[in-house]
Specification:
It is a single chain. It is built from 17 helices and 13 strands. It is of the alpha+beta class. The chain has an eight-stranded mixed β-sheet with strand order 5-4-6-7-11-12-3-13, sandwiched between helices. Strands 8-9-10 form a three-stranded antiparallel β-sheet, with helices on one face. A hairpin with a 4-residue loop joins strand 4 and strand 5. Helix 16 packs antiparallel against helix 17. The longest helix has 15 residues. It is globular and about 55 Å long.
Length: 387
């Protein structure tokens, strides 16, 4: 009598690319993440290797949310009243590092590693031209995780490595988008989750990795192979994009660059970003971090508002322990209401707005020309500067 065949994961518009399905699959190469025609990674089942155990489907947060078998509350903290903060840290080197705002995530991660834990975050792999999640166990390794990456990361095997570290009794701090946090939690046992601490980021949405690779190729014509990329070189000021290589340095306001335009105008985000269930005040991480945009209009007397202010939401007792590591480094903290935090942060109110015709044109031109610059120019020519 043949074994029962359970439902397996399928790539849908709700798939976030979190890679939890691959991490939970016990069969080598039965499930892998492969790029689609736009460049986003989706699960692909090898029918000859799959035994139809159904674990990939049962552990997929998108599938469980879509079918109503789980809620966001199930994926997040239970029975905890969130606290909403605007905060800035003392602007010393160890706090700011190459961080995009006040360096809160870096400072928390620094303390976490000093106490013997590991930190999993996103870095650029310049050899591959992609962002990837990796584990850092030393302070020098932590440096590569600083800064904003406006692209979806490749998780490779990092979730399985996190699970192994937790199983061995080592604490791990995971920093990522809410969908990535949800995916990681889904593959862990209750005992493993006890040692897991999570920071979910207030997320604008994630562009496809292929667009970034093409844009880096275009920049390399000016600077040579790109060896360093920073989307927020001036941190809190108008976003300044810098890229450097052996032949020189590129520097421009983000608003004057084609890649940043596509990102901010929602042209090349993952399809699930336009239906994101995590774009709300119901958070899945222990601590939520992001920028507190418009702080001057919401808290007029907030000191040094132009030097970087973070938005922080404490979602659990673990979140309290994480925020407490900032105690001696904090310059200003103000408690605010949920409504105040939502005023200028669209991603805490609703998913990214979709402009289907502009998005379709962007990808059609990108595939035709192999150029992000040409694709964005085509969108501007047809739809104007704002879509």
């Amino acid at each position: 009598m043949s074994a029962q065949r359970h439902k397996t994961i399928t790539a849908t518009k709700h798939c976030t690319g979190c890679s939890a399905c691959v991490a939970v699959c016990g069969l080598r190469h039965a499930l892998t993440m492969q790029p689609d025609h736009e460049g986003f990674l989706y699960p692909q089942v090898n029918a000859r290797r799959c035994n139809h155990c159904g674990k990939c489907y049962r552990r997929c947060p998108s599938a469980q949310l879509e079918t109503g078998k789980q809620t966001l509350a199930d994926l997040g903290a239970q029975a905890f009243a969130p606290r909403y903060l605007a905060l800035s840290l003392k602007p010393d080197y160890k706090n700011l590092k190459d961080s995009a705002t006040t360096g809160a995530a870096y400072r928390i991660s620094y303390a976490f590693i000093r106490e013997g834990g590991s930190v999993c975050g996103c870095r650029f792999n310049y050899d591959k031209g992609e962002a990837e999640h990796v584990l850092a166990t030393t302070l020098p390794e932590l440096d590569a995780l600083c800064g904003s990456k406006y692209v979806q990361s490749n998780k490779h095997d990092v979730m399985a490595h996190i699970k192994a570290q937790l199983k061995s009794g080592r604490k791990v701090l995971f920093i990522g988008t809410p969908c990535e946090v949800a995916g990681l939690k889904q593959i862990l046992t209750s005992a493993e989750q006890e040692l897991l601490f999570t920071i979910d980021l207030i997320c604008h949405g994630v562009p496809d990795p292929q667009s970034l690779k093409l844009y880096l190729k275009e920049l390399s014509a000016q600077v040579g192979p790109v060896q360093h990329l920073n989307f927020r070189a001036e941190r809190w000021a108008d976003s300044l994009i810098t890229a450097s290589g052996p032949q020189g340095t590129f520097k421009a306001l983000g608003t004057n660059t084609h890649y940043y335009f596509a990102f901010m105008q929602y042209l090349n985000l993952r399809p699930s970003c336009y239906h994101c269930p995590y774009a709300s005040l119901t958070r899945v991480g222990d601590l939520t971090l992001g920028d507190f945009w418009g702080v001057k209009s919401i808290i007029p007397d907030f000191p040094y508002p132009d030097e970087g202010v973070s938005a922080a939401i404490i979602n659990s007792q673990k979140g309290i322990s994480l925020i407490n590591t900032l105690h001696y480094h904090t310059r200003t903290v103000r408690e605010v209401s949920a409504a105040q935090m939502q005023v200028t942060n669209l991603s805490l109110r609703q998913p990214a707005p979709e402009h289907p015709k502009a998005r379709a044109l962007y990808y059609a031109e990108r595939d035709r020309t192999g150029s992000v610059v040409a694709s964005v120019n085509a969108v501007i020519a047809r739809f104007g500067q704002r879509t």
